[in-house]
Fold each of these.
Amino acid sequence: MLQEHLGRGTLDDQMVRDAVSHRLEVAIDAVAKISQDMLAAEAPEDWPKIVGMRNILAHQYAELDAEILQNTIDNQLDGFIQLVDRLRSTASAPGKDGESSEQKTD
């Protein structure tokens, strides 16, 4: 969805910037709901930076610098997408007891 918004224009366009900011924040929030152990294993150095960006998006929205957001999109988005893909693979892999992690509730 982020790529679709970016395809509609640049971050100089306030509507595109708002849409991209919101989608990125929502995506990070969704990833944050998974196991912290899994996050620590898959992104031990990157996860605190990702959370920091989410906090900027959520709490400093009015002051969000388009240059910071553009830098994040240009230099970090692909890595975030790869992290999400790795987490999906890990979560859907069979656990030690034969269940997938997605089936577990604890």
Amino acid sequence: MVSGNQIYNTNLDGWLTVRLSKKQTLIPDHEKSGVYGIKCHKCHEIYVGQTSRNLKSRYQEHIRYIKNNDPRSAYALHILSNRHEYGNINDTITLLKRINTPVLLLPYEQMYMQSLHHNNELIPEQHPNEHNPMFELLQRKHLTSQPT
């Protein structure tokens, strides 16, 4: 039985126990940090980035670069060079992996870049680092371990 924030349980012996439930607040993805993808509104190719701040702040920086004709990020360069359009935050940016440990941001960013590059979905202005044998090994293992 539930009453307010309290949950009442009756155990096998008939004793009434009270447990306070924690109200879980769902945090929107735009308020989280981690590895993200921004999809070009026109060509649908994806830019991969990482941030230890919230995604909304980082997205606003990319848009500011575009509005100021400043190709500081590969995403801004892509939009400006190709005269493509950027979309609104809800339709454009996706949290690919929530990460709260800063040291893991770069490896996960590289992994997503490699994966999108392999599938020809990465914007051409962004290049993954040199060929990564570890990524290839993980990708092969993942592909062969999937149920058919």
Amino acid sequence: MTLAKTGLGNVTSIAASANADVYTAAGGKKAYIRALLIHNTGTSSSQDVNIYFVPNGSSAATANEIGNMTLTAKDTAFFELAYPLTMTTNGDAINVANGSGNVTNVLVLGDVES
């Protein structure tokens, strides 16, 4: 197994009360998700976010929620996994749902097979 060492994409900005896939497996290559870097852009209030591993053909739901956190104003946090989450099926996704209030920025950290 050779890793591409190119990262998994750019920052995804998620509007208040919205959700977005921050990474989707593609190209028939295994992806290894090590962590999410999550930033609350708001200057005066906390922000709740929920994190989901969504299998291909499914949608974000309690059954596939893998974490949640509350970030204080202008806070940045890591959602780190003890062992990388391996994504092997095209269309599997990491989805982040943002609560009401502020924009949240998310960067997925990991690698993909070359």
Amino acid sequence: MNRAVKIFLIFCFIIIFVPGQCQSDWKKETDTATYVNTKGTLPYRIFIPDSISNSEKIPLVLFLHGAGERGDDNESQLLHGVKYFMNDTIRKQFPCILLVPQCPVSARWVEVDWSRPSHKMPLISIPLQQVFELIDSLILVLPVDTERIYITGLSMGGFGTWDALARRPGFFAAAMPVCGGGDEATAHLMQQTPIKAFHGNLDHLVIPARSVNMVKAVNDAGGNAECIVFPKLGHLCWDQVYSDVENIRWLFSHKREK
């Protein structure tokens, strides 16, 4: 093997194995855990920054995944969107506790048909009830700033985001539902929470009107909501949302009123 080839191969080795270059490295920085109650087991991943002091309170971000990431492997829920919150630059700018629970295959964050033009809020789903209980328990043992608890979710998680806002009025400091929908009759329960919703105009799985109508209902009830519709995108619009640092900045800019 000549010297030029050796140098080239060494260079390639360095590029491939430089720390931080592997896209899945950030996953190893999250802790794997489960929440168990009488209804069953809820797997979840959680990231807690190492650099926080004992007296410091930091935000908590709840991320609700979509239908395709359901299961019990405690990994699939990291597939979409989460990596942007785990980006080194974002983590330095907006340090937070990141909570990513995993819904079982047999359930949904909210038990409704996503293809319908509207729905009425059903009884709370078991996984979402477990998520609420989990957050309440984490607040007791972690340095969570309860005035800066945020929620976001995509697709099935977008529905879960709207549903969570209705079930815990005023609990979340801000919300970003992506290609989801909610019960418009519950919009008055969300007037205290700033909401920035997103949808792809070409979405044929969840019609854009689901987001548009919810935002209108919230604003008609005296709330503060806006809807961004991407004209050339379909259902898979979440990378466009979470890769935009201005959306992340918007989320963290809000603080719940006492």
